[in-house]
From TrEMBL:
GO CC terms, sorted: nucleolar ribonuclease P complex; ribonuclease MRP complex
Domain C2H2-type: 54-75, 223-246, 253-276
Segments of skewed composition (Polar residues): 85-109, 354-366
Residue ranges crossing the lipid bilayer per the database entry: none
Name of this protein: Ribonucleases P/MRP protein subunit POP1-like
Provenance organism: Tropilaelaps mercedesae
Phylogenetic placement of the source organism: Eukaryota, Metazoa, Ecdysozoa, Arthropoda, Chelicerata
Pfam families: POP1_C, POP1_N, POPLD
Matching InterPro entries: Pop1 (IPR039182), POP1_C (IPR055079), Pop1_N (IPR009723), POPLD_dom (IPR012590), Znf_C2H2_type (IPR013087)
SMART domains assigned: ZnF_C2H2 (SM00355)
Domain of life (superkingdom): Eukaryota
Amino acid sequence: MSKRQRRRIPSVDVAVLEQPLNLGGSDAVVLAKALRNGTAEIQHVLINECSVVLECRVCRALFRSLANLLAHKRHYCRASYAEHSATSRSSPDVTQTSELSTTLPTSIDSARPGTTLENSVACLADVPAKSRNQNGDKTARKRARESASSTAAHYRASGARERLIAAVPPANSEVNVAAKGGRERLSTKSRQVTSALDEVEAEAHSSNSNGDAHWTDICVRTWHCFTCHLALDNGYRMRRHLVYDHGTEVRYHVCPHCGLEREYMFDVMRHLHSAHGLVAQQLAELRNDIQDRVRYRPRPKVSSGMSNRRKRPPSGHAGESGGDIGGASKTAKLSRKDDQTATGDAGPSRVDHSQPNTSSSGNQDNINADILSKIDLPMTVDLERFVSARKDELANLTEVVKTRMRKLVSQQLPRHLRRRTVSHNKKRLPKRLQDRYNAEAAKVTKRPSRLHRRRPRNLQDEYTRRARKHRWLETHLWHAKRFRMVEKFGYKIPERSFDKSLRACYRGAAKYCLLNDISYECCIELRGEQISICAALGRISSPRTGLSVAAKKFTGGRYQGSIWLYQIDSYPHNCLGEVTFIWRPPESNVSERTLWLWCHPALRDNLIGIFKQLFDLAETSDSGSDMSPVFKGPAVTLTDRRNELNRFRLTGPLSVRVLCETLTQDESGLQLPSPLRLQPDYFNKFWKTLSHKALSAFAHLRDGQIAGNVVLDPRLHMPNKRIVSTVMGASAGGEESTSERADDDLGDVDDVPYESDLWDTLSRSFVKSAMLTQDQINKMRHDKLVPGTPVELGAKESRIPILIVFRGGAQTHLGYSRGCDVLLPAGWGRQFFIALNYRSARAAGLRDLTAVTRYSGRFVFPDDVPDSPIAAPHLAAETDALLTKHMKYPPNKRPPFAKLGMSLPYSLPFAQLVDSFSEQPVATDSAGLFVLRDRALLKQLAETYAKPERFVQTVKSIPSRDVELALVPVKVTCPKGVPGRFARLYALPAPYCLMREPAHTTAVPERTITREDLSQGLFDATIDNLYQILGFLVCGDRNYTEKCATGLGYVSLNALMRALLVNYGGVVAFRNQHCFNYRTVQMSIVY
C-alpha cells in the first residue's frame, strides 16, 4: 500500500466503536442469506476477508470449525444437547440453513482454493485433545491435560482416525459447485463426514464411559480480540477483557463504609486496608457483601477504537504465531490486516438507514447516525484559506513554545543529542542553542543547598567561637579530616589516624620519620636576673633528680634540659610533674636572662600559681584578652607564651634528612628587615653541612643540642606531590661526591648556631604579619607564563626564624625515639606541617606518641605518675569511664571480679599497698606516698637487685619513713602473656610452682555487685590473693622494639625488701584483673 493510499484511510474505525446492529433472525440465517442474495462485494468479504467463529450459547466457547462445535455439543455440553436435540433437528432454522446451503453461489469454492473439508478433518484428528467439564472448573482441566496423551493414543490404536479420513474424498478431488448437481454432491459429502464423526464420537464415548476422561477435538492456545487485536492464552481472560474493555456497561464495586466506587475489586480492598485499616480476615468477610452491592452503569463513549483502559498495539503477528483457533490447520494461516474496518459482529458493509432497526432504541439510532455522518470528510482542503483562518492560533502556539517552555535548552534536544550535553560544555551544543544556553547559565535558578545556606559568613569567626571551650591547634582543620579528635587538657588533640595502625606508626618511628604536633604544650617565659630565677626554681626542684636549671650546661643556651618540679620545699613529696627548659643565649650589655619552661597543659595553672608565690607576681592591666597574660614582680616577669609558639616533634632516623629537605636556606645575600638581626649567612654553613650528613647526624649531635635557623616560605618550595619515604640517598636534589663531603664536618659544638630571632617578640609579630596569604601565592603562580615555574619574590618573600632541638632517644635499641623538635612562630604551623608531610614525614596522633614514649622506657605524664595531685583527676575520670562501660554489660558478660579476688579492678590503689606494709597509717588519697626519683639511689638499687643482701643494706641507708612510703619505678619483660594497665605484680617464693588463683567461692554474687562496690573495693586485695602483692602496672602492651610484651609500673620499696628477706628468689609474676592465670616476668628498676 502506498503512502497516499494510507493517508486516505481514516484514523478512527467507526465500525468498531458502533454497537452491534441487529439485522433480524439468527446469525447463521443472516450469513446464509448474505451468501445467497448478497452482492459480489458481500460474498467476497465473507469468503476471503473474514473468518467465521462459532460460539456455544451455553458455555460461550468459541470454535472455528462446525465439526468442532458438533463434537463440543455432543460431549462437553451433553446435558444441554440432550434436552434440545429433538427440537433442534426438527427446527425450521436448521432446515432452512440446510436448504440454503444447497444453493450457495458458484464462487465459494473458487474463492478459497486449497482449503477443503478433508484438511479440516485431518487437522481435527491430529490436534491433541483438551478436556473441559460442564462447569469449566480448573480441576477438570487438569485431569483433561493428564489424560490427553492417553486419549490420543487410544484413537491411534483403534483406527478411528483412518476411518474418519477415509470417509472424506481425496485432497485432489475438487468440488465443482459451479457444475450441475454440485450442491447435491456437497451435501452428500457433508453427511458422510457427519456419520464418520458420529462413529468416532460414539467409540470415544464408549471407551471413556466412566466420565472422568472427557476430551474435545479443539486446542485453543491463543485467543484474539477482534476489536483491539489483543492476544490472550486463556478464555477466561478473554471474556474478562471483552466485558471490562469492550462491554456496554461498567460494573462498579462499592465500599461498604464510605461509598467509594471502583471498577475493580482489588482497588476497593486496597482502599479498605489503607483508608479504613481493615486486616486480611475482615477483608475476606466483606468480599461477598461487596460483590452483592455491585452497580452497573453505561460505559462512557471514547473517541478511539482501542481499549477503554489502555491502548494496545495490534497483535496480528501474535495471532499468526499462536495457531488457528478451533483446531484449524496450522499451515492455513490467515493474515489479519492492522487497518481492518469491520466490526466485531460481521454484518453487511452497507446498511440502509431508512429501514427501521427493531433491536435498538431511538437514541441508539441517533448515536449511530451521528457517528456515521462524521465519516464524510472533504476530499480536498484549501490550504491558503485554512492557514489564514488559523494564523492567530499558530502565532499564539509559537509564542507559548518559545517563551513558556520550562525545560532547559539541553532538555529540548533530540534524544540522540542529549548525551552530549552532560559535560555542561556549551561548545558541544548546536550553535543555534549556544546563546540560549549561556543566557540560562547566567541566571541563578537553582536554590543553594541547605548546607550552603547555613554556612557562616565568616568562617574564621565561626572557628574562633567553636574554639572557646577547647582550643584548636593551627593544624586542627588538617587533622580533623584525617584523625579522630579528642577533647583533652582544654585542647582538641588528634588521637589516632583513621588509616594508620599502631604498627605503621612504630615503623615510621623506627625506620622513617614520624611527625606529631605537640603545640598543646604550654610555654611559660620567665625574664629577670639569673640568680633570682635559679634560686626560686631550686625550691621546687632537686638536683638529685637530674641537672638543675642552674647547671652550666644549660645556662649557655646551647642545650635543653628537663627537671621534676614539686610543691615549694616539699621534695620528694607532692610532685607536680616534669618540665623541659631552654635558656636564651646571653646578650652583651644585658643583665636580664630569659627562660622558657615547656610543661603539660594540665600543669600550667598550678605552675603559674606557684610562681606567683615564689616571685610575688601580680597580673598587669595591659594584658588584654587578645594578648598573652603578663605577671610582673619585683625581680621576675612571667609571660604566658601559649599562643605565640608552635612545636612539632619529628621521631625517627630520617627526621634530620626530612627536616633539611623541608627547610630552604636563604642564599640570595639580601639583608633582612630591621626586626630580624641575624642574617642567613650565620646559619647556612652549618645547615648545608648537616644536609650532607643527614643520615649520620645523630652521631655528631648530642642529646638536647639546640640549633637556630632562618628559612624561606616552605609553600614556595614544596614538591608537586608527596614524596615516598626511602632510606637511600640524603637529599632529593642529589648528593655530592664522597670526596667533597669528606671535607665537610659539623665541627665543634661551639660552631653550631644556637642563636635565633625567635626569642624576640617583635620578630615573631613581624613574621606573622608579613606572611603572604595562600590566595596571593596562587594568583602569582597563575600569572606565570609557563605553568609550574617557581615563584621568585626576592625581598618580598618571608624569612622565618626557627629553633631546632635534637633528641638522642633511648640508650638501648639503637637510639629508638631519637629525633628533633621544631619551634616555630605562631601563624606558620599549618604551612610547615604540610611541608613536612609532603617530604615523607608520617603524621601521627597522641596515641602513637604515647606508645613511642613507653617503648623507649619512659613514663607518660599524667597517666603514669601516681604521686602527682594533678594527675589524680585524670585517673579518676578514666576509672569512671571504665566503670560505666563495665556496668553496661549484663552480669553474665562481666568479668567476675569477686571470684577473681580483684578489688578496685579499674584503679591503682598504691595507698592501700603502702599502708599494708607500713607501721603507721597512710592517707588514702596518695598524699603521703611518693615515687623515688633519686637517680643515684635508683642506679644503686638496680645494680644490687640481683644480690638481696646488698639490696637490703642499700635500702636500710634510707630513712625508714621514706622506705615505707616510697614507690620504685620498674619495667617488666614478659616472655609469655601480655600485661595490661591495672595488672598486679606478685612475689613468688623460692621453690615456686606457678598456680592459678583459686576462685573465691565465698565472694559476693556478681548480680549484687554495684558500681560503688567496684569503686570503693570489696575486700583488701593485698592480703586475700594467693601470692604476696608487690605493686601495679600503669601501662603494658606488646613492645615492637623488644619483640615481646613489656610493662611499666611501680612497686613498694618496703614490700620488695621484705620479699627479698623472706625466702624470695627474685621471681615476679603478674596477673591481669580479668583472669586467674599468673605469668612470670623479668623485672628491672628504671633509673
